[in-house]
Specification:
The protein has 136 residues and is of the alpha+beta class. It has a single domain (2-130), classed as Alpha-Beta Plaits, CATH 3.30.70.141. It contains 7 helices and 4 strands; from the N terminus they run E-H-H-E-H-H-E-H-H-E-H. The protein has helices spanning 10-14, 18-27, 42-48, 58-65, 80-88, 101-105, 120-130, and strands spanning 2-8, 31-38, 70-77, 114-116. It has a 4-stranded antiparallel β-sheet. Bound molecules: inosine-5'-diphosphate and magnesium ion (MG). The site of inosine-5'-diphosphate (IDP) has 10 residues, from helix 4.
């Protein structure tokens, strides 16, 4: 069993698409084992996305991620990391395969509804980022 960290981004919450996205993961047989709604501070968003700090989209990404509430969740299942990434689709919805969350529902390559960890190491680190072992 893998665990992965998925975020429903501010556009997902504001557009009322949380249920639709969660339903897709659940219908694929993946299990949500932890979930919370929160707002990221600028510092937290900057740390979470620090691998992108040299990218030209970084500032816009941070502004977007702090623009509203998000939902962070731990999703568990066989090959959960790979499968959630496949279900999300490519970063740019225009490039994403039909039937994926981003192709079907996302607005553009920034406002693309969801984040999912892209490796076992990232999953561990990102789960710890949102769900500290002490419950904080
Ligand atoms: P991913 O979410 O598909 O793993 P990354 O390359 O890790 O994509 O980028 C992180 C996030 O940064 C994306 O999900 C998207 O919100 C934003 N982003 C990525 N590339 C661009 C871009 O070219 N323009 C605007 N925003 C982008
Ligand atoms: Mg990524």
């Amino acid at each position: 069993m893998d665990q992965t960290l998925v975020i429903l981004k501010p556009d997902c919450v504001k557009r009322g698409l949380m249920g639709e996205v969660i339903k897709r993961f659940e219908e694929a047989g993946l299990l949500i084992v932890a979930m919370k709604m929160l707002s990221l501070s600028r510092e937290e968003a900057s740390e979470f996305y620090r691998v992108h700090q040299e990218s030209d989209f970084y500032e816009g990404l941070i502004e977007f991620m702090i623009s509203g509430r998000i939902v962070a969740m731990i999703i568990e299942g066989e090959q959960a990391i790979k499968r959630t990434r496949e279900m999300m689709g490519a970063t740019d919805p225009a490039q994403a395969v039909k039937g994926t969350i981003r192709a079907d529902l996302a607005e553009n390559n920034r406002r693309n509804l969801v984040h999912g960890s892209d490796s076992p190491a990232a999953a561990r680190e990102e789960i710890d980022f949102f769900f500290k072992p002490d419950g904080g």
